[in-house]
Amino acid sequence: MQKQRFHTLIPGLMAAAMAACSGPAVPPEISTLAVPAATGAMAPNMVTGPAGEVVLSWLEPTTTGHTLRFSVLADGGWGAKQTVAEADNWFVNWADFPSVVPLAGETWAAHWLAGQPEGGYAYDVVASMSLDGGHTWSEPFTPHADQTPTEHGFVTLFPDGAGLGMVWLDGRKMVNDYDENDVAASGMTLRSASFGLDRLPITDALIDDLTCDCCQTDVALTREGPAVVYRNRTTEEIRDIYVSRRVFGEWQPGVAVAADDWEIPACPVNGPVIRAKGARVAVVWFTAADEQPRVKVAWSSDSARTFSAPVVLDESHPLGHVGAAMLANGDLAVSWHRSAGQGRAVLMLGLLTASGEVKSIQQLTEADSVFAFSVPQLAVSGDDLIVAWTTEIDDEFGVRSARVPLQTLQSL
What we know:
A 5-stranded mixed β-sheet has the order 1-27-26-25-24, with no helix packed on it. Strands 3, 4, 5, 6 and 7 form a 5-stranded antiparallel β-sheet that branches. By secondary structure, the protein is mainly beta. The protein has one helix at residues 406-411, and strands at 6-8, 31-32, 42-48, 54-61, 66-74, 77-78, 82-87, 99-104, 107-115, 123-130, 152-160, 163-170, 188-195, 201-211, 218-222, 225-231, 241-247, 250-251, 255-256, 273-277, 280-287, 294-300, 311-314, 318-326, 332-341, 344-352, 358-363, 377-381, 384-393, 396-405. It folds into 2 domains: 1-32 and 316-412, no CATH class; 41-211, 6 Propeller (Neuraminidase), CATH 2.120.10. The chain is globular. The longest helix has 6 residues, at 406-411. A hairpin with a 2-residue loop joins strand 17 (241-247) and strand 18 (250-251).
Protein backbone atom coordinates (compact mmCIF):
# COMPACT_ATOMS: atom_id res chain seq x y z
CA MET A 1 0.00 0.00 0.00
CA GLN A 2 1.23 3.48 -0.81
CA LYS A 3 2.91 5.42 1.97
CA GLN A 4 0.40 7.86 3.46
CA ARG A 5 0.71 11.18 5.24
CA PHE A 6 -0.90 11.40 8.66
CA HIS A 7 -2.13 14.55 10.34
CA THR A 8 -4.33 15.35 13.32
CA LEU A 9 -6.66 18.14 12.29
CA ILE A 10 -8.53 18.55 15.55
CA PRO A 11 -6.91 18.08 18.96
CA GLY A 12 -9.77 18.05 21.44
CA LEU A 13 -13.06 18.96 19.87
CA MET A 14 -12.07 21.44 17.17
CA ALA A 15 -9.04 23.56 16.25
CA ALA A 16 -7.51 25.42 13.38
CA ALA A 17 -6.40 23.44 10.37
CA MET A 18 -2.73 22.67 10.18
CA ALA A 19 -0.78 25.24 8.19
CA ALA A 20 2.20 24.33 6.08
CA CYS A 21 5.60 25.39 7.41
CA SER A 22 6.08 27.35 4.24
CA GLY A 23 3.95 28.20 1.29
CA PRO A 24 1.91 30.93 -0.31
CA ALA A 25 -1.19 30.62 1.89
CA VAL A 26 -2.47 29.21 5.15
CA PRO A 27 -5.40 26.82 4.62
CA PRO A 28 -8.74 28.11 5.88
CA GLU A 29 -9.74 26.99 9.35
CA ILE A 30 -11.94 24.03 10.08
CA SER A 31 -15.01 25.25 11.91
CA THR A 32 -17.79 23.79 13.98
CA LEU A 33 -21.35 23.87 12.69
CA ALA A 34 -23.80 24.12 15.56
CA VAL A 35 -26.48 21.46 15.21
CA PRO A 36 -29.91 22.51 16.54
CA ALA A 37 -30.36 19.15 18.24
CA ALA A 38 -31.39 18.68 21.86
CA THR A 39 -29.20 17.05 24.47
CA GLY A 40 -29.39 13.30 24.11
CA ALA A 41 -29.79 13.40 20.32
CA MET A 42 -28.21 10.57 18.34
CA ALA A 43 -28.20 8.69 15.02
CA PRO A 44 -27.34 11.49 12.57
CA ASN A 45 -27.95 10.77 8.90
CA MET A 46 -26.82 13.22 6.22
CA VAL A 47 -27.84 13.19 2.56
CA THR A 48 -27.40 15.43 -0.47
CA GLY A 49 -30.50 16.09 -2.54
CA PRO A 50 -30.72 16.34 -6.33
CA ALA A 51 -30.37 20.15 -6.18
CA GLY A 52 -27.29 19.92 -3.95
CA GLU A 53 -29.13 20.62 -0.70
CA VAL A 54 -27.56 18.96 2.35
CA VAL A 55 -30.02 17.59 4.91
CA LEU A 56 -29.06 16.35 8.36
CA SER A 57 -31.57 14.27 10.34
CA TRP A 58 -31.37 12.82 13.84
CA LEU A 59 -33.37 11.31 16.68
CA GLU A 60 -34.20 13.30 19.82
CA PRO A 61 -35.53 11.78 23.03
CA THR A 62 -38.84 13.10 24.40
CA THR A 63 -40.45 12.55 27.76
CA THR A 64 -42.30 9.51 26.40
CA GLY A 65 -40.41 8.39 23.29
CA HIS A 66 -38.51 9.90 20.36
CA THR A 67 -38.95 12.40 17.56
CA LEU A 68 -37.35 12.49 14.10
CA ARG A 69 -36.03 15.95 13.27
CA PHE A 70 -33.94 17.48 10.50
CA SER A 71 -32.16 20.64 9.42
CA VAL A 72 -31.07 21.97 6.02
CA LEU A 73 -27.65 23.52 5.51
CA ALA A 74 -28.03 27.16 4.38
CA ASP A 75 -26.19 30.47 4.71
CA GLY A 76 -23.14 28.86 6.26
CA GLY A 77 -24.90 26.85 8.96
CA TRP A 78 -27.66 24.48 9.91
CA GLY A 79 -31.13 26.00 9.74
CA ALA A 80 -33.92 25.70 12.28
CA LYS A 81 -34.84 22.13 13.11
CA GLN A 82 -38.07 20.72 11.74
CA THR A 83 -40.07 17.69 12.86
CA VAL A 84 -41.20 14.75 10.73
CA ALA A 85 -42.91 12.55 13.33
CA GLU A 86 -42.74 11.37 16.92
CA ALA A 87 -44.06 8.40 18.91
CA ASP A 88 -43.43 6.27 21.97
CA ASN A 89 -42.98 2.90 20.24
CA TRP A 90 -40.00 3.42 17.97
CA PHE A 91 -37.12 0.99 17.66
CA VAL A 92 -34.01 3.06 18.38
CA ASN A 93 -30.38 1.99 18.26
CA TRP A 94 -27.08 3.26 16.89
CA ALA A 95 -26.83 1.00 13.84
CA ASP A 96 -30.29 1.18 12.27
CA PHE A 97 -31.16 4.85 11.96
CA PRO A 98 -33.87 6.93 10.23
CA SER A 99 -33.44 9.24 7.25
CA VAL A 100 -34.92 12.35 5.63
CA VAL A 101 -34.25 12.49 1.88
CA PRO A 102 -35.05 15.06 -0.84
CA LEU A 103 -36.19 13.19 -3.95
CA ALA A 104 -37.05 15.72 -6.68
CA GLY A 105 -38.23 19.31 -6.47
CA GLU A 106 -40.45 19.67 -3.42
CA THR A 107 -40.92 15.90 -3.05
CA TRP A 108 -39.19 14.48 0.01
CA ALA A 109 -39.39 11.19 1.90
CA ALA A 110 -38.51 10.04 5.40
CA HIS A 111 -38.40 6.76 7.24
CA TRP A 112 -38.14 5.49 10.79
CA LEU A 113 -38.61 2.19 12.63
CA ALA A 114 -41.61 1.23 14.77
CA GLY A 115 -41.41 -1.54 17.32
CA GLN A 116 -43.94 -4.35 17.22
CA PRO A 117 -45.84 -5.53 20.31
CA GLU A 118 -43.61 -8.63 20.50
CA GLY A 119 -40.68 -6.34 21.32
CA GLY A 120 -37.03 -7.22 20.87
CA TYR A 121 -35.95 -7.19 17.24
CA ALA A 122 -39.50 -7.31 15.90
CA TYR A 123 -39.98 -3.96 14.19
CA ASP A 124 -41.31 -2.43 10.99
CA VAL A 125 -40.18 0.16 8.47
CA VAL A 126 -42.44 3.22 8.47
CA ALA A 127 -42.21 5.90 5.78
CA SER A 128 -43.80 9.25 5.01
CA MET A 129 -43.70 11.64 2.06
CA SER A 130 -43.76 15.41 1.79
CA LEU A 131 -44.80 17.38 -1.29
CA ASP A 132 -43.74 20.76 0.08
CA GLY A 133 -40.05 20.33 0.82
CA GLY A 134 -40.43 18.83 4.27
CA HIS A 135 -42.81 21.35 5.79
CA THR A 136 -45.71 18.91 6.10
CA TRP A 137 -45.77 15.12 5.98
CA SER A 138 -48.22 12.49 4.81
CA GLU A 139 -49.83 9.77 6.83
CA PRO A 140 -47.20 7.09 7.44
CA PHE A 141 -47.14 3.85 5.46
CA THR A 142 -45.20 0.59 5.57
CA PRO A 143 -43.45 -0.81 2.45
CA HIS A 144 -43.77 -4.44 3.49
CA ALA A 145 -47.02 -6.35 4.02
CA ASP A 146 -45.77 -9.63 5.52
CA GLN A 147 -46.83 -8.72 9.09
CA THR A 148 -44.31 -11.12 10.59
CA PRO A 149 -42.89 -10.38 14.07
CA THR A 150 -39.38 -10.02 12.65
CA GLU A 151 -36.76 -7.41 11.86
CA HIS A 152 -37.30 -4.96 8.99
CA GLY A 153 -34.77 -2.16 8.73
CA PHE A 154 -31.42 -0.85 7.48
CA VAL A 155 -33.30 1.18 4.89
CA THR A 156 -31.99 3.32 2.05
CA LEU A 157 -34.36 5.75 0.34
CA PHE A 158 -33.59 7.07 -3.15
CA PRO A 159 -35.27 9.02 -5.99
CA ASP A 160 -37.02 6.64 -8.36
CA GLY A 161 -38.42 8.50 -11.35
CA ALA A 162 -40.96 10.95 -9.97
CA GLY A 163 -41.48 8.83 -6.87
CA LEU A 164 -39.74 7.00 -4.05
CA GLY A 165 -37.52 3.94 -4.18
CA MET A 166 -36.30 2.05 -1.15
CA VAL A 167 -34.32 -1.01 -0.22
CA TRP A 168 -34.25 -2.67 3.20
CA LEU A 169 -33.26 -5.81 5.06
CA ASP A 170 -36.32 -7.98 5.56
CA GLY A 171 -36.50 -10.76 8.12
CA ARG A 172 -39.85 -12.30 7.21
CA LYS A 173 -38.24 -15.75 6.74
CA MET A 174 -36.94 -15.67 10.32
CA VAL A 175 -40.26 -17.04 11.53
CA ASN A 176 -39.05 -20.38 10.16
CA ASP A 177 -37.10 -22.74 12.41
CA TYR A 178 -33.34 -22.51 11.96
CA ASP A 179 -31.84 -25.36 9.99
CA GLU A 180 -28.05 -25.49 9.85
CA ASN A 181 -28.34 -27.43 6.60
CA ASP A 182 -30.47 -24.72 5.00
CA VAL A 183 -29.65 -21.35 6.60
CA ALA A 184 -31.37 -19.52 3.73
CA ALA A 185 -34.73 -20.93 4.83
CA SER A 186 -34.69 -18.69 7.90
CA GLY A 187 -32.17 -16.02 6.88
CA MET A 188 -32.34 -12.29 6.30
CA THR A 189 -33.25 -11.04 2.80
CA LEU A 190 -32.79 -7.82 0.85
CA ARG A 191 -35.94 -6.36 -0.69
CA SER A 192 -36.91 -3.29 -2.71
CA ALA A 193 -40.09 -1.37 -3.45
CA SER A 194 -41.07 1.81 -5.25
CA PHE A 195 -43.99 4.16 -4.61
CA GLY A 196 -45.73 6.95 -6.44
CA LEU A 197 -46.59 10.35 -5.01
CA ASP A 198 -49.85 8.81 -3.80
CA ARG A 199 -47.79 6.40 -1.67
CA LEU A 200 -49.24 3.42 -3.53
CA PRO A 201 -46.79 0.65 -4.41
CA ILE A 202 -45.53 0.40 -7.98
CA THR A 203 -42.98 -2.40 -7.64
CA ASP A 204 -42.02 -4.96 -5.00
CA ALA A 205 -38.95 -7.12 -5.50
CA LEU A 206 -36.67 -9.59 -3.77
CA ILE A 207 -33.05 -8.64 -4.50
CA ASP A 208 -31.15 -11.28 -2.48
CA ASP A 209 -32.57 -14.21 -0.51
CA LEU A 210 -29.71 -14.48 2.03
CA THR A 211 -27.83 -11.50 3.43
CA CYS A 212 -26.02 -10.45 6.59
CA ASP A 213 -28.52 -9.63 9.33
CA CYS A 214 -27.77 -6.07 10.39
CA CYS A 215 -25.30 -4.22 8.17
CA GLN A 216 -26.39 -0.94 6.61
CA THR A 217 -27.38 -0.83 2.95
CA ASP A 218 -26.69 2.00 0.49
CA VAL A 219 -27.80 3.04 -3.00
CA ALA A 220 -26.21 5.25 -5.67
CA LEU A 221 -27.75 6.45 -8.90
CA THR A 222 -25.32 5.62 -11.68
CA ARG A 223 -25.55 6.58 -15.33
CA GLU A 224 -27.33 3.27 -15.99
CA GLY A 225 -29.65 3.32 -12.98
CA PRO A 226 -29.62 2.54 -9.25
CA ALA A 227 -27.08 0.20 -7.68
CA VAL A 228 -27.35 -1.13 -4.13
CA VAL A 229 -24.47 -2.35 -1.96
CA TYR A 230 -24.89 -4.61 1.05
CA ARG A 231 -23.14 -7.30 3.03
CA ASN A 232 -24.01 -10.69 1.62
CA ARG A 233 -24.05 -14.02 3.47
CA THR A 234 -23.30 -17.39 1.93
CA THR A 235 -24.26 -20.76 3.35
CA GLU A 236 -20.57 -21.11 4.30
CA GLU A 237 -20.81 -17.87 6.35
CA ILE A 238 -18.71 -15.75 4.00
CA ARG A 239 -19.92 -12.17 4.48
CA ASP A 240 -18.45 -9.97 1.78
CA ILE A 241 -19.75 -6.81 0.11
CA TYR A 242 -22.04 -7.32 -2.88
CA VAL A 243 -23.60 -5.01 -5.43
CA SER A 244 -26.84 -5.41 -7.36
CA ARG A 245 -27.75 -3.18 -10.32
CA ARG A 246 -31.27 -2.48 -11.51
CA VAL A 247 -31.38 -2.99 -15.27
CA PHE A 248 -34.54 -2.32 -17.29
CA GLY A 249 -36.53 -2.36 -14.06
CA GLU A 250 -35.13 -5.67 -12.76
CA TRP A 251 -32.62 -6.09 -9.96
CA GLN A 252 -29.77 -8.31 -11.11
CA PRO A 253 -28.25 -11.08 -8.96
CA GLY A 254 -25.75 -9.64 -6.51
CA VAL A 255 -22.05 -10.02 -7.24
CA ALA A 256 -19.07 -9.51 -4.96
CA VAL A 257 -17.32 -6.15 -5.16
CA ALA A 258 -14.15 -7.93 -4.00
CA ALA A 259 -13.30 -11.41 -2.76
CA ASP A 260 -12.35 -10.71 0.86
CA ASP A 261 -13.63 -14.16 1.91
CA TRP A 262 -14.43 -12.92 5.40
CA GLU A 263 -15.78 -15.95 7.21
CA ILE A 264 -17.70 -14.85 10.29
CA PRO A 265 -20.66 -16.71 11.86
CA ALA A 266 -22.33 -13.49 13.03
CA CYS A 267 -23.15 -10.04 11.72
CA PRO A 268 -20.35 -7.47 12.19
CA VAL A 269 -22.87 -4.56 12.03
CA ASN A 270 -20.67 -2.69 9.55
CA GLY A 271 -22.23 -1.80 6.23
CA PRO A 272 -20.76 -0.37 3.00
CA VAL A 273 -21.38 2.91 1.20
CA ILE A 274 -21.55 3.60 -2.53
CA ARG A 275 -21.09 6.92 -4.35
CA ALA A 276 -21.45 7.68 -8.06
CA LYS A 277 -21.00 10.44 -10.61
CA GLY A 278 -22.24 9.22 -13.96
CA ALA A 279 -20.55 5.92 -14.72
CA ARG A 280 -17.84 6.52 -12.11
CA VAL A 281 -18.64 4.59 -8.91
CA ALA A 282 -16.80 4.01 -5.63
CA VAL A 283 -17.63 1.51 -2.88
CA VAL A 284 -16.14 1.76 0.62
CA TRP A 285 -16.36 -0.96 3.25
CA PHE A 286 -14.85 -2.61 6.30
CA THR A 287 -13.57 -6.18 6.48
CA ALA A 288 -11.66 -8.24 9.02
CA ALA A 289 -10.85 -11.19 6.78
CA ASP A 290 -7.81 -13.15 7.95
CA GLU A 291 -8.21 -11.39 11.32
CA GLN A 292 -6.84 -8.19 9.79
CA PRO A 293 -9.24 -5.22 10.09
CA ARG A 294 -9.14 -3.01 7.00
CA VAL A 295 -11.06 -0.21 5.35
CA LYS A 296 -11.11 -0.74 1.59
CA VAL A 297 -12.19 1.17 -1.50
CA ALA A 298 -12.93 -0.20 -4.98
CA TRP A 299 -13.71 1.79 -8.13
CA SER A 300 -15.87 1.17 -11.16
CA SER A 301 -15.86 3.07 -14.45
CA ASP A 302 -18.87 1.23 -15.92
CA SER A 303 -21.77 2.02 -13.56
CA ALA A 304 -20.90 -0.72 -11.04
CA ARG A 305 -20.77 -3.57 -13.56
CA THR A 306 -17.14 -4.32 -12.70
CA PHE A 307 -14.73 -3.06 -10.05
CA SER A 308 -11.01 -2.55 -9.78
CA ALA A 309 -8.86 -4.39 -7.27
CA PRO A 310 -9.55 -2.72 -3.91
CA VAL A 311 -7.28 -0.14 -2.32
CA VAL A 312 -6.53 -0.56 1.39
CA LEU A 313 -7.23 2.81 2.98
CA ASP A 314 -6.52 1.88 6.59
CA GLU A 315 -5.22 -1.22 8.32
CA SER A 316 -4.11 0.44 11.56
CA HIS A 317 -6.85 -0.85 13.88
CA PRO A 318 -9.87 0.55 12.03
CA LEU A 319 -13.34 -0.16 13.40
CA GLY A 320 -15.13 0.67 10.14
CA HIS A 321 -18.52 2.48 10.23
CA VAL A 322 -17.64 4.15 6.95
CA GLY A 323 -19.00 7.22 5.20
CA ALA A 324 -18.02 8.79 1.87
CA ALA A 325 -18.52 11.78 -0.41
CA MET A 326 -17.41 12.10 -4.02
CA LEU A 327 -15.90 15.45 -4.96
CA ALA A 328 -16.56 17.33 -8.19
CA ASN A 329 -13.17 16.29 -9.59
CA GLY A 330 -13.88 12.61 -8.91
CA ASP A 331 -11.77 12.36 -5.76
CA LEU A 332 -13.32 10.51 -2.84
CA ALA A 333 -13.43 11.63 0.80
CA VAL A 334 -13.95 8.81 3.31
CA SER A 335 -14.73 8.80 7.03
CA TRP A 336 -14.42 5.91 9.47
CA HIS A 337 -13.67 5.04 13.08
CA ARG A 338 -10.26 3.92 14.25
CA SER A 339 -9.80 2.19 17.60
CA ALA A 340 -8.30 4.28 20.40
CA GLY A 341 -8.36 1.38 22.85
CA GLN A 342 -10.61 0.63 25.83
CA GLY A 343 -13.74 0.73 23.70
CA ARG A 344 -13.01 4.24 22.40
CA ALA A 345 -12.64 5.53 18.85
CA VAL A 346 -11.36 8.50 16.90
CA LEU A 347 -12.94 9.84 13.73
CA MET A 348 -10.72 9.63 10.67
CA LEU A 349 -10.83 11.30 7.26
CA GLY A 350 -9.12 10.03 4.15
CA LEU A 351 -8.80 11.34 0.61
CA LEU A 352 -8.31 9.22 -2.49
CA THR A 353 -7.70 10.57 -5.96
CA ALA A 354 -9.88 9.59 -8.90
CA SER A 355 -7.15 7.13 -9.91
CA GLY A 356 -7.44 5.33 -6.57
CA GLU A 357 -4.27 6.78 -5.00
CA VAL A 358 -4.45 7.40 -1.26
CA LYS A 359 -3.48 11.05 -0.85
CA SER A 360 -3.87 11.59 2.88
CA ILE A 361 -5.27 10.23 6.12
CA GLN A 362 -6.14 12.62 8.93
CA GLN A 363 -7.52 12.28 12.43
CA LEU A 364 -10.45 14.64 12.95
CA THR A 365 -11.30 14.19 16.63
CA GLU A 366 -9.97 12.80 19.85
CA ALA A 367 -11.51 9.73 21.43
CA ASP A 368 -13.38 11.47 24.24
CA SER A 369 -15.71 13.23 21.79
CA VAL A 370 -16.81 10.25 19.65
CA PHE A 371 -19.38 7.51 20.30
CA ALA A 372 -17.52 4.46 19.02
CA PHE A 373 -20.72 2.65 18.05
CA SER A 374 -22.09 5.13 15.53
CA VAL A 375 -21.77 5.88 11.83
CA PRO A 376 -20.13 9.23 10.89
CA GLN A 377 -21.67 11.08 7.96
CA LEU A 378 -20.10 13.03 5.06
CA ALA A 379 -21.45 15.40 2.41
CA VAL A 380 -20.06 18.04 0.04
CA SER A 381 -21.44 21.57 0.06
CA GLY A 382 -19.77 24.00 -2.33
CA ASP A 383 -16.12 24.22 -1.37
CA ASP A 384 -16.56 22.39 1.93
CA LEU A 385 -16.79 18.87 3.25
CA ILE A 386 -19.47 18.61 5.93
CA VAL A 387 -18.98 16.02 8.68
CA ALA A 388 -21.51 14.88 11.30
CA TRP A 389 -21.10 12.35 14.08
CA THR A 390 -22.49 11.15 17.41
CA THR A 391 -20.74 12.08 20.64
CA GLU A 392 -20.91 10.40 24.02
CA ILE A 393 -19.67 12.65 26.80
CA ASP A 394 -20.34 11.81 30.44
CA ASP A 395 -22.71 9.03 29.30
CA GLU A 396 -24.83 11.49 27.33
CA PHE A 397 -25.31 11.43 23.57
CA GLY A 398 -25.11 14.43 21.28
CA VAL A 399 -24.81 15.28 17.58
CA ARG A 400 -21.84 17.34 16.36
CA SER A 401 -20.94 18.72 12.96
CA ALA A 402 -17.94 20.40 11.35
CA ARG A 403 -16.96 22.08 8.11
CA VAL A 404 -13.68 21.02 6.50
CA PRO A 405 -12.68 23.25 3.55
CA LEU A 406 -11.80 21.12 0.56
CA GLN A 407 -8.72 23.32 0.15
CA THR A 408 -7.53 22.05 3.54
CA LEU A 409 -8.36 18.44 2.76
CA GLN A 410 -6.65 18.49 -0.60
CA SER A 411 -3.55 20.43 0.46
CA LEU A 412 -2.39 17.99 3.17
